Amino acid sequence: MAMSLLRDGVISAHDMVQALAQVKAGGGRLMTALLAGHPRQDQLYAAIADLTGLGLADLHRQPPDPRLIDRLGASFCAAHHVLPWRDSGGTTVIATPEAEVFAQHYARLIATFGPVTHALAPQDRIDTALLDTRGPQLARQAETYLPLKDSCREFQRASRGRLILLSALGLAAVAVLPLTLSVLMIWAAFTLALTAVMKLGAVLSQPRVETDDANVVIARLPVVSIMVGLYKESDIAARLVLRLGRLDYPRDKLDVLLVVEEDDHLTRNALRHANLPAWMRIAVTPRGKVKTKPRALNFGLTQCRGSIVGVYDAEDMPEADQIRKVVERFHHRGPEVACLQGILDFYNPTRNWLARCFTIEYASWFRVILPGLERMGLPLPLGGTTLFFRRDALEKLGGWDAHNVTEDADLGMRLVRQGYRTELLQTTTFEEANCVALPWVKQRSRWVKGYMMTYITHMRQPRLVWRQMGTRGFLGFQVLFLGSLTQTLLAPLMWSMFTLQLGLGHPITAWLDHSTVAALSMLFVFAEMLNMATGMIGLHRSGHKMSWAWVPTLTLYFPLQALAGYKAFWELLHAPFYWDKTTHGSLSTHKA
Question: Where are the domains of the chain?
Fold first, then answer.
């Protein structure tokens, strides 16, 4: 077929050389490569139709019959680019971009429709026609993939009555300000003490020594699907394709889905011109009621082909052997290990002071705190990227909560509740540190709001959560979520204790005696020293050549977290499902 097209002048020798190089580098079919990269697809498809005797499906003039789509299933059609177009005298006409696709699904097609015949149509037109016809249905499926009882989608904007009640409580608290501050201070100190104990346990725990499975031969490698949610990422699309292209895994076993929003035309166009290899494909998420990453992931999950499903972010640069490590770890673990979490780090750690602090914080979390939580058998809140799941377990859990803006933390808790385990994997993905104050606050406020939503959602049934997690897991959940939220929102109150060190007054001295105030001050100093020690240990384990002198400056970094916390609380009341997007690719230079 390809040689006939070349001989007839439909494709050029340059087109053929490029397609052959792409097939050699990334696998796949020659015709797929030719179709994906050809600038005049109408002419190419007309020529293929002449050579094969197949018809062309004009999906614009005659849209597909939605009843036929429903019989096959809109999700199946979207996943495989198979479109039941119309009925022709008792025979169903099926539109696909290639004859091989029709042949691959022929058995299912005749079982569903009876007599079928084949017509050709470009893949992007099949996708567009499907979205035009069944977009709302696909969107609803993605938004309600998780059962209502486990989702936060019933959250509503705070009513006027609730806002009035909150205001009244606030005024009452102000009326007895010394008492209010004293109660809040005691609560903050209590949660800080619990957090410090947990953090100290993490610091003192010995890191797990992983056995080297690099020499283990797995007879049959599984297909691994990788989803990358993209929204307004046209500037970074080409770099993403380059970075994922460095993954060392057989191309016929690698299935990368670049999940984009239907109305994100800039990113879609950028990806079309990025010369995608055969093992990468675009999944277009239809418009819906919310526009969040977990909704896009739910849509993409229905189109994944692998038994292992991974998630990356747009700016990620994973280590080349990462997928092999994932496959080897799952191979050596039982089905109860349903999730693997890799280490996150930054490729711009010294960009400025904020990037340095963010790097220290990440090093503390991923190289000290999370390994310690794992060793202590406590729940692990997942990071949003470098996550890998057994697909069957992920589907049993109901995928992601499409309305939770920190979907990873929620999913981590649902894994624990259903008896699954998450393990940390010694492999690193480098990403871009958000190093500008306002975007940093926006990003962090989304994380904090998601923590709030996750805690409220799970605590609707506290007895059930306790029974499912066990006492240790339940207490760990309380410290991780309620404790961290308390520390974020009440941080300014705790910082105010330093006025006593300066010999200044404080309202709490009206209700708390001197010894209690002194004990609180000592606790706050100890917690601050523990933070510094954790940062230094994390930096050492990360291998970053950064001076420890930057670690004490975290004291000036944490106030940004408090600002983010108040923004998060305001949004929880007024816009719970709003996704304050992080802008990627803002650096003038990138490590490619």
Answer: 2-143, 168-592
The radius of gyration computed from the CA coordinates of the chain, to the nearest angstrom, equals 27
Q: Tell me what the pLDDT averaged over the chain comes to.
A: 87
Cα atoms in the Cβ-side hemisphere of radius 13 Å centred on 474? 12
Q: Which two tokens stand for residue 463?
A: 């007895």
Chain centroid to CA 288: how far?
A: 18
Question: Using an 8 Å Cβ cutoff, are 453 and 155 in contact?
Answer: yes
Nearest of 170, 157, 60, 143 to residue 404 by alpha carbon? 143
Contacts of 544 (CB under 8 A, 6+ apart): 349, 359, 363
Residue ranges of alpha helices (H) inside 377-483 are: 391-397, 407-417, 437-458, 462-477
**For residue 370, what are its two tokens?**
């999370």
pLDDT in tens, 452-471: 999 999 999 999 999 999 99
- Contact in structure between 123 and 97 (CB atoms under 8 Å): yes
Q: Order across the sheet with 421-431: list the strands.
A: 280-285, 254-261, 224-230, 308-312, 387-390, 337-346, 421-431, 317-318
- Name the strand (E) or helix (H) holding 197: helix 177-204
Task: Identify any residues that bridge with 282 across adjacent strands, giving them in sequence order.
Answer: 258
Question: In this model, does residue 41 exceed pLDDT 80?
Answer: no
Q: How many of the other CB atoms lie within 10 Å of CB of 119?
A: 20
Average pLDDT (521-546) is 93
Short-list 312, 185, 301, 328, CA closest to 236: 312
Provide the CA 73 distance to its chain's centre, in angstroms: 26
Q: What is the pLDDT of residue 174?
A: 62
User: Which segments of 249-364 does DSSP mark as H helices, in order?
Assistant: 265-272, 293-301, 322-331, 353-364
Asked if 295 and 142 touch (Cβ cutoff 8 Å), the reply is: yes
Please state which CATH number belongs to domain 168-592.
3.90.550.10
Residue with tokens 């009452």: 172
- Of the candidate ranges 19-28, 143-152, 482-491, 541-550, the one whose mean pLDDT is the lowest: 19-28
**Angle subtended by helix axes 177-204 and 160-175, to nearest 10:** 100
Q: Which residue from 224, 266, 258 is spatially nearest to 241, judged by alpha carbons?
A: 258
CB-based contact 5:48 (threshold 8 Å): yes
| pLDDT for the residue 588 | 44
pLDDT for 485-503, tens place per residue?
Answer: 999 999 988 888 777 766 6
Q: Which of 182-186, 209-213, 376-380 has the highest mean pLDDT?
A: 376-380
